[in-house]
């Protein structure tokens, strides 16, 4: 197998503001793995809070040697080698994992949703993400989301009620909120969750800082809507830590090293009685299409990352009636533009 890679910068359609930061671009690294005439594509998306950079990803990828592997090797063997090269580097590992899944699927002429026996149309609505903004900005972004059935809004500042009210002034679509650890008082957080439920909010991601474990468990126990772990959940080893603290988890390929571990997390979370959300970073259609292969298994999807950028370099899963639907193409179902 021959590995190659290149840095790339995603240009966002709008300034993207969270409770703690704003940005207009997202750096990524695109990965290609060639073998026996097939090419698999992967991607590492690197928002600043992930603590990986294009430099750290390229350094990790430069340390890999896939020359000793071929398509005759079990995929798990290749992924096991990658996991053990160095700790952490989860987005870098996800890029290789995605490229390998694409490569193996193409070589064997199946999409992964087919291999797993899933219906590519049997998926939840994907949410459209609205960053923190002015009242008028929120209304405009909400109106731009006319093709979506579920809205996801970033909260965590003093403008939270204004943001929800601005959305409600132009639509009655269901909302989910992502607080990004922005609430620090559990009683005030509970009051907000009750108010949010009255406004048609169906669940809340990471209401409190990940260090506030006891307060978060109390909040979940009293919350009128499900709470979903995001910053508190990274990899499969975190499942035991968040069970009983949150109602469910948000799986992101960039955090859990890719499709292989995401598959395992979904099934272990189900066994633990937890809700499952499948999320994303700002990504091209490469990583989004990889995640879409898994979406028939989850309760909620937030796979709009490719729709938030202006320079997507792949064609892949598409928005249809508010859902991100995988193509019939083999592998992860993409083409390089």
UniProtKB/TrEMBL annotation:
InterPro entries from the UniProt entry: DgoD-like (IPR034593), Dipeptide_epimerase (IPR034603), Enolase-like_C_sf (IPR036849), Enolase-like_N (IPR029017), Enolase_C-like (IPR029065), Mandelate_racemase_C (IPR013342), Mandelate_racemase_N_dom (IPR013341)
Mandelate racemase/muconate lactonizing enzyme C-terminal domain residues: 135-226
Swiss-Prot/TrEMBL keywords: Isomerase, Magnesium, Metal-binding
Named cofactor requirement(s): Mg(2+)
Enzyme Commission number(s) from the entry: 5.1.1.-
Binding note for cofactor: Binds 1 Mg(2+) ion per subunit.
Family affiliation: Belongs to the mandelate racemase/muconate lactonizing enzyme family.
Protein name: Dipeptide epimerase
Native source species: Coprobacter tertius
């Amino acid at each position: 197998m021959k590995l190659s890679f290149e840095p790339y910068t995603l240009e966002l359609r709008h300034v993207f503001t969270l409770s703690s930061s704003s940005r207009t671009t997202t750096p990524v690294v695109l990965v290609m793995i060639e073998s026996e005439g097939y090419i698999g594509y992967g991607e590492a998306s690197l928002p600043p809070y992930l603590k990986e950079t294009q430099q750290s990803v390229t350094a990790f990828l430069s340390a890999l040697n896939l020359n000793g592997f071929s398509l005759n090797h079990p995929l798990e063997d290749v992924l096991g080698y990658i996991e053990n090269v160095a700790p952490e580097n989860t987005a870098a590992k996800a890029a290789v994992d995605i490229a390998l899944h694409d490569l193996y699927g193409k070589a064997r002429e199946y999409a992964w949703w087919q291999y797993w026996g899933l219906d590519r149309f049997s998926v939840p609505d994907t949410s459209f993400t609205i960053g923190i903004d002015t009242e008028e900005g929120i209304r405009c972004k909400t109106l731009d989301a006319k093709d979506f059935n579920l809205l996801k809004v970033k909260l965590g500042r003093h403008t939270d009620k204004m943001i929800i009210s601005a959305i409600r002034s132009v639509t009655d679509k269901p909302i989910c909120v992502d607080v990004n650890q922005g609430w620090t008082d559990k009683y005030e957080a509970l009051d907000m969750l009750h108010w949010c439920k009255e406004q048609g909010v169906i669940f809340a991601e990471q209401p409190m800082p990940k260090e506030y474990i006891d307060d978060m468990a109390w909040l979940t126990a009293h919350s009128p809507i499900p709470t979903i772990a995001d910053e508190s959940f990274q990899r499969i080893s975190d499942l035991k830590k968040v069970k009983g603290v949150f109602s469910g988890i948000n799986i992101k390929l960039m955090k859990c090293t890719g499709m292989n571990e995401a598959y395992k997390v979904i099934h272990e979370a189900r066994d633990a009685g937890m809700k499952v959300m499948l999320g994303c970073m700002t990504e091209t259609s490469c990583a989004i299409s990889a995640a879409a292969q898994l979406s028939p298994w989850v309760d909620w999807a937030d796979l709009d990352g490719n729709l938030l950028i202006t320079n997507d370099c792949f064609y892949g899963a598409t928005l249809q009636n508010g859902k991100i639907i995988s193509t019939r193409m083999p592998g992860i179902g993409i083409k390089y533009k």
